[in-house]
Amino acid sequence: MNDRTVSPQTASDQAASDQAASDQAASDQAASDQTASDQTVSDQTVPAAVDVRREPADPGASRRPILSLVPLVFRHPALVVLTILSGLLSHGFGVASAALGAWLVGEAVTGASPADALTTPVVLLLATVVAAALARWWQMWVAHDLAYRLLADLRIRLFDGLERRAPGYLLGRRTGDLAGTVMADVETTEWFYAHTVLDYVVAALVAVGATGVLFVFHPMPALAVAVFLILLATVPVWLARQADAQGRRLREELGVLGAEVVDGVQGLRELVTFGRGTDYLHRLGERTRALQRRQLAYGRRAGLEQAATDALVAGGLTTVLVLAASLVAQGDLPMAMLPAVVVLAVSAFGPVIEVTGTARSLGQIRAASQRIFAVTRQRAQVVDRSAEPPDGPLSPHVEFDGVSFTYTEDRPPALSDCTFEIRPGETVALVGHSGAGKSTCAHLLMRFWDVNGGAVRIGGADLRDLPQSHVRDLVSVVPQDVYLFNRSVMENIRLGRPEATDEEVREAARQARVDEFAAGLPNGYDTLCGERGAQLSGGQRQRIAIARALVRDSPVLILDEAVSNLDAENEEALQAAIRNVRHGRTTLLIAHRLSTIRSADRIIVLRQGRVAEEGTHDELAGTSGEYRRLLAHQTGGIVDVGDD
Ligand SMILES: Nc1ncnc2c1ncn2[C@@H]1O[C@H](COP(=O)(O)OP(=O)(O)OP(=O)(O)O)[C@@H](O)[C@H]1O
């Protein structure tokens, strides 16, 4: 038996319990609380992913997704300052060089200054042109540095959101759609961070500055520029509602297409086997055309905004030119100043045109951020009542005490008043028809969900009183459908305990009989397993999963036996590995094979979420109850109660 000492409280425990508190308090204050929660997230580190658990729950998408993107920016104050500064310098030098050039032209055309007096201004002009180019390069650099850091933060938040809701939320979403949110939707926000949010600040400052200088020349053209600037700034608002709806539909369609592509790639073998490749291509074609329609609608509206912007800019410049020309004609403005006035007007419009250009993407940015926050603000599937692990080690004594559980309200209960225990070091086999509730018992013991009624306990402690991380320390699982990452055999085993030494991993591999086949792999333990372990057989994948559980060394083990048929050699190796991993552990065995069932100390028969029978194989096989019927079913009517 393996009594494990309780692990020290981790930062994630603390954060997860804080989440519980904030969950209850604040779902309506999502946007305002966001600022505070954002500030708790430290830069670029894994704890950042943990700290976001403090975010208030906001089921569904945020109502103000763009506003929710803004506070993230202030997590990098130095870069914010540098981005604004570089933007101001870039536009400032740009305006200065244009104004200086215009003044020089005016002087040259009117002959107001002698030629040799213009040498210094020409040198100054060249210097400002070079400075403007350098500042522009710097601005692009820092703005993108900021944007890509924020994208990385968002992706960590997203993964954290997914983890908090796993596995329930994942069951209801398509892989390609989620991958689309993590990659493409996050990428879309780059527009906002690199080209929109701080550019608005710079555009406003430059426009006000240029208009101010113009005002010094003469108030009339400055007034005209101000009116047209205000009109220009309102363009993105005119069709904002339409832009939102179109952006949302476009991102959704992209998500669906991504999901279809991933579905098709994952199911390629089946499509080829059943000759459905053409049907799939047809389906993909339809989705692509649907996406095309959405993109076209979005583009049409964006084109309308572009046309309105162009018309307003042309109108503004013409008005300024007409006003300035008439002021010159009336003698209210020197002729030499005319080019400078026009150039200043162009400079005032320049950055505003730039930001209205990026503002045309706001519909998509809003929709993308809505999809992101719909994940990050998911209410946690399971909320820890306490971050404190128990004071001493817990005995690996498992109890299901009158447990009732329903996955969703529209489904019948998966477990009803289910009561059984597994004593320390004992192996109990759960058997029952498909849908009887066996896997549900495993899910509840892992605390993937919390019970609706009754309690699940380990060592007398209600799992709801233990932090999830502590439960995961106490219980490990060897699932039926083992997921292997496309990493080496060694790394896949080490997933059980990242700090395990190579020696410990090899010892676990030896006990799980992984060494037998690892030696024959091209690069031994360094051989990549392939995506989902595609380079290995089902039995080999299971043995790696057993090695993972061994290296984790949890006192309670859930073993979900694979139903697939294995060849005799694999079967023998797997059974030996199972014997090794069960040794000294409290084991819940979801068994399908008679040989495995019989190897358990006790058998619990589940029927419709309740315990129907309980006893040893010999006791139960001798009755005329559910177990005997199950055996008859499995052995084709020949009930073998003798030795195998
Ligand atoms: N994620 C889920 N959401 C909704 N209902 C679920 C979910 N998982 C299982 N169920 C339902 O709960 C009931 C018990 O399912 P469970 O998977 O525990 O049965 P099982 O005995 O393990 O079956 P099997 O031997 O086929 O794996 C079934 O009616 C099933 O449809």
Automatic annotation (TrEMBL):
Segments forming domain ABC transmembrane type-1: 81-364
Cellular component terms per the entry's GO annotation: plasma membrane
GO molecular function, one term: ABC-type transporter activity
Compartments, record wording: Cell inner membrane
Gene Ontology BP, a term: cell redox homeostasis
Annotated spans, Disordered: 1-61
TM regions (residue ranges): 78-105, 117-138, 197-217, 223-241, 311-329, 335-356
Listed name of the protein: ATP-binding cassette, subfamily B/ATP-binding cassette, subfamily C, CydCD
UniProt lineage: Bacteria, Bacillati, Actinomycetota, Actinomycetes, Streptosporangiales
